[in-house]
Amino acid sequence: MNLWPPSIDFFQDIVEELSSEYEILEYADYNFTNKEDFEEFVREIYKIDGAVERSINRKIDFFTDLHHKKVKRFDTYNSDNYIMRCIHFNIPNPVFRPRGSDGKPISIETEAIKRYYRDKYSGKIENYIYDIIIHIGDNEVQTKNILSLLDNYKKFKRNE
Predict the structure, then answer these.
(1) Nearest-5° angle of CA 12, CA 109, CA 49?
(2) How far is CA 27 from the centre of its chain?
């Protein structure tokens, strides 16, 4: 699970609440000190997500208005440092359903987790725009790919 920069004030609250229901395997903060590196990371995350159509990453590039692009949304919150938290946790017996867009498996539980934290914190983030709090891989394959991607960005990982 990735917690995006606008939710920084709630990182620890989310870890503590999540740990009451799931085994937390590891968590760490990543401090991207420039927009270009952060933007590249976000693009790579959403490539893993499978939201790519005709070389366009729908979740980032689909909107024509620059203010609605995913990375642009984060500018309002952290213009100098883009800090995100990655939480690796275990869902012991995940249940999957086919994703509507492509039939690939998506965890019902991760959908519920995203919805829960978006609902809980959206009203606590000034100028909230949908989808700027959390991202979770839909299945084990995406999660493994995200963890591999994080290895490529370990220079941004803060000392624990």
Answers:
(1) 85
(2) 13
Residues 6 or more apart whose Cβ sits within 8 Å of residue 52: 46, 58
Bridge-partner residues for 132, per DSSP? none
DSSP label of 157: B
Looking at the structure of the chain, the number of domains it has is 1
Q: Which domain holds residue 73?
A: 2-156
In tens digits, the chain (160 residues) has pLDDT values of 999 999 999 999 999 999 999 999 999 999 998 888 888 888 888 888 765 444 445 555 543 333 335 666 666 655 567 899 999 999 999 999 998 878 889 999 999 999 999 999 999 988 888 778 999 999 999 999 999 999 999 999 996 5
CATH number at residue 26: 3.30.70
